[in-house]
UniProtKB/TrEMBL annotation:
InterPro entries: YARHG_dom (IPR025582), YARHG_sf (IPR038434). Keywords: Membrane, Transmembrane, Transmembrane helix. Signal peptide: none annotated. SMART domains: YARHG. The chain crosses the membrane at residues 35-57. Gene3D superfamilies: 1.20.58.1690. Residues 158-243 form the YARHG domain. This is YARHG domain-containing protein.
Length: 244
């Protein structure tokens, strides 16, 4: 113990000596002291400017073209007006038969994005994991009927986009005969494809039931500049047709 104590005291003496050595050095060379202070100030100022610039560029609020009831926010937040509808509420008119409606609105092709590379087992597991989101969902019955009218069933219903709004410019005739719920979903699908997170619980739950959907963008961070010229034209059209 005595040896350890002596070593500790020697170390303390060494630190004190270095302190005075540095103090003497700076006293003899005042310009070095000034340079050190100026350097530290420059680094601190640079970091502060960088942080402020980053916040300004990345948190500028953008206006959205969607209606207020469809603005994005966590599903747990309180909502007003039409957004007070519970996720499990039923919707009238979603059991109609659309099999006699001849339209060419959707041609999704293969499964979207990375889903094209998933195995059947992976897809089935993902669908099962999200199945609870679609139970009693306001839009799901109408969308299922629409898929049936296109001859699409099974896992494909959860792996495809309803419309190719990113590449095809549609006209009002293309959506003639579609249920209001389907038109509403096609419009909001354009936002969902860009990671838009919905405040409306029915919309949020519907898209969470689609295994391609990954909510990642909150309202303050979403910009309509995200949309291509084709998407903007389709969004304007769908806004004029959407009655919900």
């Amino acid at each position: 113990m005595e040896d350890l104590r002596e070593r500790l005291l020697d170390f303390v003496d060494w630190v004190v000596d270095r302190h005075y050595d540095l103090k003497d050095f700076l006293s003899e060379h005042p310009s070095v002291k000034r340079w050190l202070i100026e350097g530290v100030c420059c680094v601190a100022a640079g970091i502060l400017v960088g942080v402020i610039t980053f916040n300004v560029l990345n948190h500028e609020k953008k206006s959205l073209a969607v209606t207020e009831e469809n603005a994005a926010a966590p599903v747990a937040e309180e909502t007003t007006g039409e957004e007070d509808i519970a996720a499990g509420s039923a919707v009238e008119g979603t059991t109609d038969d659309y099999s006699d409606v001849v339209i060419e609105v959707v041609d999704p092709g293969d499964y979207v994005g990375d889903l094209a590379n998933w195995s059947n087992e992976q897809i089935a597991a993902a669908i099962s994991e999200r199945a609870s989101y679609l139970e009693g969902n306001k839009y799901w019955n109408a969308v299922q009927s629409y898929w049936e009218s296109k001859g699409i069933s099974g896992d494909a219903r959860y792996c495809k986009y309803l419309a190719d709004t990113a590449n095809t410019v549609y006209s009002a005739e293309d959506f003639q005969g579609l249920a209001p719920e389907v038109i509403h979903i096609i419009k909001n699908e354009m936002y969902a494809r860009h990671g838009y997170s919905f405040k409306n619980p029915d919309l949020y739950n519907y898209f969470m039931g689609q295994i391609w959907y990954s909510p990642s963008v909150m309202p303050a961070d979403f910009s309509e500049k995200t949309f291509t010229e084709t998407e903007v034209k389709n969004l304007d059209l769908l806004n004029s047709l959407d009655t919900m």
